């Protein structure tokens, strides 16, 4: 059983390495700051996964008890990694700050929860450090249900924000990346709840592997898929037309419609736009019709001239 678990850990690490490479490709290809921030989050989570592998190997294979100094040090470092994850999420949110008042409240709540979880994780590192040094305060004061609830609520808010917030200025591959990570955040919630129930009531043995690792697999897969999308996309020429937030609000353009304008400026056909966005040519024609109607124009050239003004 130990060898099977180690093999699963190694597969997770291999998938994480592929996801890391995908985010690096995205950063280079798109020039957006968002893949870079997600790359840091991914690497920190990747480090935590590697630490879990070391912990499992020392405990299950070598037989070290959790109370030994080596295991205590790992617990402290693991808590610090978790604190770093939530602080990086706090910083990442600044890259997709809302351009409209509609999402500003959700944005602020997400950042507050990220800071709160970072503080809880830092407190956990302090607690494990005190236990390691043999100081008083032997019992963790925060119930596990509270911690799991706080984590689940934070992930739920992050997922909703990443999926719903407008991203008109970003290229389609980056939009796909953020939306995909948002879905991963949402899926984390039931996985985390199930794991807490398994540990609490013991009806099913989860074992040393965490259900949360499926979240890591999802985000790695999304990162790889987004990297392939960015590689398929044609590089944008200098002076490419993009829709400003002001123009998007004035004309009432949707995020998808905004993302099509740079492709129109590059001279892509409806079929080529459909291939880049992963939609049908009929859907592209529908979006193009909506762009014309909202901007009060009749052709692509008129649309681009209107947006230049």
Note down, in words, how this protein is organized.
Residues 246-309 form the HTH luxR-type domain. The protein has 309 residues and is an all-alpha fold. It folds into 2 domains: 2-232, Rhopdopsin 7-helix transmembrane proteins (Up-down Bundle), CATH 1.20.1070; 245-308, Arc Repressor Mutant, subunit A, CATH 1.10.10.10. It is 76% helix and 0% strand. Residues 203-207 have low confidence and may be disordered.
Structural class call reads mainly alpha
State the order of secondary-structure elements, H for helix, E for strand. Answer: HHHHHHHHHHHH
- Biggest sheet: strands, sense, closure? none
Q: Would you tell me the overall average pLDDT?
A: 81
Determine the N-to-C terminus distance.
67 Å
Can you tell me the residue ranges where pLDDT is under 50 for at least 5 consecutive residues?
A: 203-207
In DSSP terms (H or I, runs of 4 or more residues), the helix count works out at: 12
> What is the CATH-assigned architecture of the largest domain?
Up-down Bundle
Q: Write down the domain tally.
A: 2
Instruction: State the shape.
Output: elongated
- Approximately how much helix is present in the residues? over 70%
CATH class of the largest domain equals Mainly Alpha
Topology:
Elements: H1 2-30, H2 33-61, H3 69-95, H4 104-132, H5 144-164, H6 172-201, H7 213-232, H8 245-251, H9 255-265, H10 270-277, H11 281-295, H12 300-308
Helix pairs in contact: 1-2, 1-7, 2-3, 2-7, 3-4, 4-5, 5-6, 6-7, 10-11
Q: What keyword list fits this structure?
A:
single chain, mainly alpha, Arc Repressor Mutant, subunit A, about 75% helix
């Amino acid at each position: 059983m130990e060898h099977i678990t180690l093999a699963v850990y190694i597969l997770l690490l291999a998938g994480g390495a592929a996801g890391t490479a995908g985010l690096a490709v995205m950063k280079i290809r798109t020039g957006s700051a968002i893949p870079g921030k997600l790359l840091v989050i991914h690497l920190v989570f990747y480090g935590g996964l590697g630490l879990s592998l070391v912990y499992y190997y020392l405990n299950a294979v070598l037989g070290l008890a959790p109370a030994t100094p080596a295991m205590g040090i790992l617990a402290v470092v693991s808590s610090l990694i978790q604190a770093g994850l939530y602080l990086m999420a706090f910083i990442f949110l600044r890259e997709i700050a809302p351009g409209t008042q509609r999402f500003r409240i959700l944005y602020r709540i997400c950042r507050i929860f990220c800071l709160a979880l970072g503080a809880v994780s830092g407190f956990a590192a302090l607690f494990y450090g005190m236990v390691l040094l043999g100081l008083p305060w032997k019992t963790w004061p925060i119930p596990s249900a509270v911690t799991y609830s706080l984590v689940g609520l934070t992930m739920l808010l992050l997922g909703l924000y990443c999926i719903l917030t407008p991203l008109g200025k970003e290229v389609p591959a980056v939009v796909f990346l953020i939306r995909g990570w948002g879905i991963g955040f949402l899926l984390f919630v039931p996985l985390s709840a199930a794991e807490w129930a398994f540990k609490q009531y013991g009806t099913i043995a989860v074992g040393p592997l965490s259900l949360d690792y499926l979240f890591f697999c999802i985000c790695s897969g999304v990162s790889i898929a987004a990297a392939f999308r960015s590689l398929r996309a044609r590089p944008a020429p200098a002076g490419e037309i993009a829709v400003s937030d002001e123009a998007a609000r004035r004309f009432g353009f949707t995020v998808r419609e905004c993302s099509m304008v740079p492709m129109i400026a590059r001279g892509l056909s409806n079929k080529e736009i459909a291939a880049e966005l992963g939609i049908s040519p009929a859907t592209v024609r529908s979006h193009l019709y909506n762009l014309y109607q909202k901007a009060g124009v009749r052709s692509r050239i008129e649309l681009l001239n209107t947006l230049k003004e």
